[in-house]
Structures
1.
Amino acid sequence: MSALPSSPAPVTLADLLARPDVWRGDALARVKAPGLATGYPELDRELPGGGWPRQALSEFLAPPEAGVAGLLAPALAALAGPLLLVAPPWPLHAAGWAAAGLPGQRLLVVEARGQDAAWACETALEEGGFAAVLAWLPDIDARGLRRLQLAAESFSGPACLVRPPARLRESSPAPLRLTVECRPQGLLVQIVKRRGGGLPPPLTLVPRLAVARLQERDRALARPALSPAAPGRPGAPARRPVHA
Amino acid sequence: MAANGAARQLGVAPGMGLASAWGLAPELKVTERDGAAETRALAGLACWGGNFTPQVSLDPPAGLLLEIGGCLRLFGGLPALLQQAVDGALAQGYSLAAACAPTPLAARWLANGAPWLEPAADGPRPAATPLLAENGGPLPVCADPARLGAALAPLSLDCLELPRQQRQRLENFGVACLGDLLALPRAGLNRRLGLQLAADLARALGEVPDPRPRFPFPDTFRQGLELPARVDDAPALNFAARRLLQQLQGWLASRGAGVGRCTLELQHEKYAGSTRRGLPPTRLVLGFAGLTRDGERLQRVLSERLGRLALAAPVDALTLIADQVEELPGSDRQLPGQAPPEEEGTDPARTAVALERIKARLGEDKVYSLAAVPDHRPEQATRRCAPNLDLHGIMARTQDPGHSQAMAGQGPRPLWLLAHPQALGETQGRPRHGGPLQLLAGPERIESGWWDEGESADGLPAPGDLRRDYFVARNPAGEWLWVFRDESGWFLHGRFA
């Protein structure tokens, strides 16, 4: 190693390692913007920046049923400002979101499909003005993803994208990719791509939902599953809800 | 007759007979002069002038005076303001001659002597070409009243728009330019040429005041624009419509107002379509998330709408009408030395712009916010509402107290509520969804709505009279579900994550 001629003091290895342009292979990458704490300390430890990345696209490879919204809710509730939900898989129930810390006034929903949904997402990231953008884009292609990632780089908050798990094989410009699966023990989260390399073992997280505590309580009480009786109003043979 | 720049290059001169003009330029396109249209165009341009100053005066037949002495600082100095004004007027599609002087008459005379500027065929003028006369550009500027006489001196007598007879007499005196005229004693001029000329000179030099009536900005905005050629392609209308939007912007600025909604009418070519009467105009309603007079914002919403539009017939004229105009105070600028405001959360103005663009392209009803309604029936407990961006307090992390009160005593509620309850199979009396469900909490009896049997609100089918027992359930895959049972069996109604 050739020492710099202008620095007479001997350079120690520790000094060198402390330089901002030196990156050690076993450490997570440094990121410009600190991440948004996920609400799960064990997950924060594995993410560069210590949380959901800002100014970058995060890709969740999960079926809609896996409950990415529930996984993200604690982090999103900690933000101030409106959240944009693009093409959510089902209608939202305001009371449930309010209980998760996100009153309905903070939620902005865009109903769109296919190209329109991707365009709306890109527009929102470009224009800014949202605390976070969460989009369900099952059919977005590689070009669309690239555009979204570029738009997300100028966006101040987290940009989260939910895609079907089958897209895991396809390459993606998103710097963070995770698979999320529903398991009886909780959510199985596996980071499949992150800045800084080295993939951690999958994590099992118990979602921070009010209902998740019910099961803990049930386990503690060792209560048998309920077997309710139907509400009594005899004589309605049709196999459908009353209003449908 | 009058001639534009291209015709003048071919040798056609104003005042020439039509036959000799055609002799010089056989491809000449002759249009009859339409005085009413000129007046309308000048009024439109005066509206646009409101972008720069509220003191706009008309100088008929074809002059527009902007009093800019009071707004130099706002636009970053005289050269920057002149640059913006000239570029803006050229973008309005007019060829023009411009000048800047301390008195209106001197400005007009200087402009008469200035070379004509033509609107560029594509886009704005290249920024590299100098504009001001002192840099070798075409725009004469005299900002100093003391030097006004010197600035006017080289002008030819043509610039004064004198009657023919007076002009002739001056030439007989040996007066070739305005400088010669100014050198003559005024008393003699008064005697020989009448009082008018000497009075004009005094007004031009600022010796006597020259008040001009202000342009009365119209109370409602409705400006039309005839397109030079038929347009078949909606995005191509963008360029023409931008002129109208800039006029709207100036009109709004002059009133201190913002627009919440405006309509662009596209008049179709006559005799288009199968009927003789032609098609009715296509109306594009442009809605904005909040009041605005930001031209950029107006333009973006318009281009999203035009980008999606398929024209039924070629368009030959546009009309822009401001529908909803309300007072919009200007935003305060920072005082020097004052710290910029803390970057807290998100900027509602940017949110509004993003939502406007999305709405303009996808439709007004495709973007909505949510409101919790104190109704026990889950289907009725959420209502879609227009995004509320003005109340930033609500956007901040606050829980609506009334809302949490209404929810008190309720069981857990899911994030997602299926549009239609999904019937579930049963094994040994227990519901199935990807395996038998484990019921974790419940029953929560919801029995309500006897009053609106079968009625519909908000276009959604009303659930009517409900009588259900709700349970929180978990299936073997680990999904958290909200299921209910009524007299017809088990249903899946919501998902918790």
2.
Amino acid sequence: MFDLPQNSFYVMASVVGLLIIASTASFALGLRNPEKDYTELRQRIQSWWVMIALLFVVLTISKNMAIAFFGFLSFLALKEFLSIVPTRQIDRKVIFLAYLAIPVQYYWVSIGWYEMFIIFVPVYVFLALPMRMIFIGETKGFIRSAGTLHWASMLTVFCISHIAFLLALTPLNENAGYIGPVLFLLFMTQFNDVCQYIWGKSFGKHKIIPKVSPNKTWEGFLGGLATVTLCSALVAPLLTPLNNLQGLVAGALISLSGFVGDVVISSVKRDLQIKDSGNLIPGHGGILDRLDSLTYTSPLFFHYLYSAYY
Amino acid sequence: MNRFLKILFFALIVRPVVLIGLGLNVRGRENLPKRGPAIIAANHNSHLDTMVLMCLYPLSKIHKVRPVAAADYFISKGGFLAWLSLRCIGIIPLDRSGTAKREALFQECHEALDNDEILILFPEGSRGNPEQLSELKKGIFFIANQRQDTQVTPVLMHGLGRALPRGEGLLVPFNCDVVIGDQIEDINDSSEFINAISESFDYLSQFCVTLGKEES
């Protein structure tokens, strides 16, 4: 059906199944406790429907469509990052240059030029941005401004583009096709967020980093780690070239790094004293609130897979 | 015909630029007057302000939203800008020279309100020069005070002066905050009324998420 490799199709169908369960459960909750307000939960699930639908549609249409889609996500994330973090008014043209890095970086992805993809942002963009800044010539705040722009480009363009490069890899698992590893990464990362949340809500007692994220507990973290690592060992052979044992490692990697990504973006927001980075996604917040874990899981999962098989 | 042009202009050009190129963090949308007669008072930093405010309304209502804009800037020079302002955006030109009589000055605003339209006013009067505030400051009071059927809704925007500041042609994408406040109560004194608006702007600014960037 839809020309999708069968494993990828089954996983996508299961995700839709999970969403149906979530919607039904939230509807039932609303019926059982009519006095409580479930607006945020409902919005959250509705937004999940929209995000999943968009993702599945672009993944189904074509590889380049999906690459462009992740490029667009990079754009939204970079824009959101630079909107909440202080920047100098004088750097408008430098910031514009940073935006231009997005189509270029995703072009390297689309032609599958790995060497260029892997150095373009950390070398060329890294060197070009301060160069553009000296043409403007304002030195007050120069260091902070260069640091902000570099970090923003690395997180939102370089890291996120690793999701897209998974699409450009030669598919080694015939039953999963080129979309298999992307589905695996996205599903495991989001599943990890949910698992850590649920374990934390149910058993959470001992805080990990109360200064940054008071809701994060050891119980949530370890519960999520165990659940995701086990599930990953089972799912990885379906969607990726990885075997069960490698899937175990990939799952642990995703769970650990997903936690870090989440907390890093939380620190940014805490520093700026804001709760959400925007309100693009109803019930979730901004795009960075959704991509936070992926900024860490994408490059780490990518390089694990890449070094093992390519 | 005019309405069709306006819908086309907003659907194909303005909305993609504002919603994708920029991106809005809207707070207090429930305070936005859904139908006229209504008056919106907003701060002014960029040409994009008007476009952003108009994008808060669905395309089906866009012809009912009328920004009040400087006749000397948009209309007097004629040509493309005047055509765009009048036909595509549907501004109400306002004479800023100070020579016109008050009744004549606001006549078109009152006609629009009588016609159940929503006025957008920028009490600052200009994007950059606060000195030009005074006349229009009083202006919004004189329009609102004369009418029993409507009140003023304050809207604070932030971030647009960064995306497209005065005197710049390059639009750089940034998310922008749009915070819509509670209606300003009826006050019969012009300076108190203006104070109430600026106090409201102050209050609304705490809901901005993009405010971290004031230092330059």
